[in-house]
Amino acid sequence: MSSPEAKPYPGTQAVEHGKARADEWPLFEIFIRGQHGLSHRHVGSLHAPDAEMAIKNARDVYTRRNEGVSIWVVQASDIAASSPEEKGSLYEPANDKVYRHPTFFDIPDEVGAM
Amino acid sequence: MYAQMIKSTGDGVKSLDEMEPQERAFQERINAGGKIEPKDWMPEGYRKNLIRQIGQHAHSEIVGQLPEGNWITRAPTLERKAILLAKVQDEAGHGLYLYCAAETLGVSRDQLTRDLLSGKMKYSSIFNYPTLTWADMGAVGWLVDGAAIMNQVPLQRTSYGPYARAMVRICKEESFHQRQGYDIMMKMAKGTPAQKKMAQDALDRFWGPALMMFGPSDENSVHSAQSMAWKIKMNSNDELRQKFVDECVPQAEYLGLTVPDPDLKWNDERGHYDFTQPDWDEFFDVLKGNGPCNTERLEARNKAWDDGAWVREGLMAHAAKKRAAKLAAE
Q1: Residue of A42, A43, A45, A67 to mutate for B, most B C-beta atoms under 10 A
Q2: Pseudo-torsion of CA B142, B144, B150, B156, nearest 10°?
């Protein structure tokens, strides 16, 4: 049985995933926006004493090769996430709404590109 | 391979029929090429094994900075120095990506560090060898990073999502490491007779330890079979070692250097090189802590951790003070 919180690794304080342990620098999740106009994208995480240092560290850890032009940092404990058990109730309703996809509709070739 | 001799906690691989429904669903997902994510259910053995493997891999990246850091102040040119600095900085980054992946499994980075410093957790045997000349920087990049790539490329498809993603990032950067090493070897091998001799000497000393990086044969290991069923190990140790030898021999030939193995020979029937196994007694001895640099490496890591304590605490105190001031102003 395993949820990381349930059985902490020996010597490690049990905390919910992503929550900060009292004696360590908190964990920050790092988001980088690349050069080509796409949205910020999650690239990984790191530890830092505060958000300002997290940005400095993220610059060194995640943009050594021009990977980005903008950095967001979010303390991991501030992120709310859906859980795997909710998969059904969250995503299954989309399955029976195939008409939301454009390919649901047959448009005759004579009409041309649409 | 940066993770050697990882022992699984189970007693061999269970068949799907022997599994409880939860575990069966887990294994079927892996069999179908699906990814396991941090919040998903996983067997305790899978989690423990991964912590050991990813932790050992991360430690290897961090300790691996030491043999190369040794030459930063003595690099022959400013450009070589800048390149080596960038390479060693990458290794620190690789360690960080991997610690973060391990942390998603419920262990903390500081705990992993403490286990490294106390000697409870291991790092790759290769980093317990000294780097005696500048040519060693070439041999390390070419052979050690080359061997690491053999193992890391398939691990990009490993079943644990955070580990696979860390591997993707690492592999992108690793190819720079290998090429900069080979570049040093080319320069030395085509240099003065003395330089060429240094290059040959570096190859002579690193060849065996590089072959050991893949670990002893694991064709009959239950640990290995379980790891492969879980897709946290993608190839057998012998398979990867053979691939490594097959790639390295022509590269050594191009350099005009001799691989230090009198029995090395192309085997037409197998389509592979036949080669001599490295000295496995030496390997186990190094793992036990008796390599030339084991003590020095752990001392250096312990000193860095102890000397850095005031920085970690100071920055934490500063952050708390700033938070308090901000609250007071609101």
Answers
A1: A45
A2: -110
Strand stretches in B120-251, DSSP E:
none
**Which residue matches tokens 């920055």?**
B315
CB distance A64–B90 less than 8 Å?
A: yes
Please classify residue A10 by burial: count the beta carbons closer than 10 Å to its beta carbon, then call 0-12 exposed, 13-18 middle and 19+ buried. exposed
pTM of the complete model:
0.90
Residue of B nearest to A57 (CA): B93
The CA distance from B143 to the nearest CA of chain A, in Å, is 24
Q: Which residues of B282-302 are buried (b: 16+ CB within 10 A; e: fewer)?
A: ebeebbeeebebbeebbebbe
Q: How far is B301 from chain A (nearest CA, A)?
A: 18
Write down the ipTM of this complex: 0.86
State what percent of residues in chain A have pLDDT above 70: 81
Q: What is the H or E stretch that residue B176 is in?
A: helix B161-189
Task: Give the strand pairing for B272-274 and B265-267.
Answer: antiparallel
* Sheet strand arrangement including A70-75: A41-47, A27-33, A70-75
